[in-house]
């Protein structure tokens, strides 16, 4: 039962849908209509990269997408995302990332907890947010990935290493590029500040959206070179056809 102060707060500032802004009876993040219009990523999906639907089985019966079947030395252990990044859900992500709707982090963290069940079952030691270059951080005033990591940390009781992985070189926004150019744009711009913090650790990289995965892959390579035992990725949304 809610305490009187909480009831008063909800009366003055009632919880609202993170997508359409309508008033909610409970703090569940989405109104019924927006919930029904959100494409949640559920099985079947690739057991490695989490790509929905386009899966085949390998010799051991694991469901893998064609790309993961060909990749004999994957840098990532597992990748998971909560929802499809489409025109409908895009609104709430943009509001969170660029319009100071930082309160959305609590709702998104709940989605991450659900989406990351496979990762957590495999074992996790630390959460690391994908970093921003300091110039972009000053301009935006917060790193949305760090907010997600700290909220998720509260839910799964795992520490956050914020500032361990840094982006030391400024780049043009990834949205300016496509395909291979995204990998080139982000290559060699990250480093681990203190490798001893990630040595032999099972790391989960946290970000808001996976598009091609170029940024997450580059971060994972740097972490593995620094001694991380494994690297998984967990994002709120993912772009796919």
Order of secondary-structure elements: HHEEHEHHHEHHEHEEHE
Q: With helices defined by DSSP (H or I, 4 residues minimum), what is the helix count?
A: 10
Class from helix and strand fractions: alpha/beta
Tell me how many strands there are: 8
Main sheet attributes: strand count, strand direction, barrel closure: 4 strands, parallel
Strand order of the largest sheet: 3-8-7-4
Mean pLDDT across all residues, rounded? 89
Helix content: 25-40%
Which range does the strand content fall in? 15-25%
How many angstroms separate the termini?
43 Å
Overall shape: it is globular
Could you tell me the CATH topology label of the domain at 75-238.
Rossmann fold
Structure description:
- This protein has 241 residues and is α/β, with parallel strands linked by helices.
- The protein is 36% helix and 16% strand.
- The protein contains ten helices and eight strands.
- The model has no long low-confidence stretch (mean pLDDT 89).
- The relative contact order is 0.15.
- It has helices at 4-12, 32-37, 66-70, 90-98, 104-115, 117-122, 134-140, 144-156, 180-186, 214-225, and strands at 56-57, 63-64, 79-84, 126-129, 165-167, 190-192, 202-210, 230-238.
- The protein has a domain at 75-238: Rossmann fold.
- The strands form three sheets. Strands 3-8-7-4 form a four-stranded parallel sheet, with helices on both faces.
- Helix 5 (104-115) packs across helix 8 (144-156).
- The protein is globular.
């Amino acid at each position: 039962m809610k305490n009187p102060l909480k009831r008063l707060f909800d009366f003055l500032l009632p919880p609202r849908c993170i997508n359409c802004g309508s008033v909610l009876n409970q703090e569940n993040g989405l109104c019924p209509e927006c919930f029904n219009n959100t494409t949640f990523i559920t099985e079947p999906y690739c057991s490695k990269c989490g790509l929905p639907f386009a899966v085949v089985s390998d010799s051991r019966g694991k469901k893998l997408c064609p790309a993961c079947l060909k990749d004999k030395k994957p840098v990532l252990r597992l990748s998971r995302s909560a929802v499809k990044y489409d025109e409908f859900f895009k609104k709430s992500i943009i509001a969170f990332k660029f319009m100071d709707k930082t309160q959305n982090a609590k709702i998104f963290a709940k989605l991450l907890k659900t989406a990351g069940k496979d990762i957590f079952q495999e074992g996790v030691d630390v959460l690391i947010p994908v970093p921003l270059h300091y110039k972009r951080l000053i301009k935006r005033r917060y790193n949305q990935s760090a907010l997600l990591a700290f909220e998720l940390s509260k839910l799964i009781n795992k520490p956050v290493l914020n500032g361990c992985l840094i982006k030391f070189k400024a780049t043009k926004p990834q949205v300016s590029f496509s395909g291979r150019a995204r990998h080139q744009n982000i290559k060699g711009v990250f480093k681990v500040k203190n490798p001893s913090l990630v040595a032999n650790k099972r790391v989960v990289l946290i970000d808001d959206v996976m598009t091609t995965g170029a940024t997450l892959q580059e971060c994972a390579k740097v972490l593995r070179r620094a001694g991380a035992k494994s690297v998984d990725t967990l994002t709120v949304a993912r772009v796919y056809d």
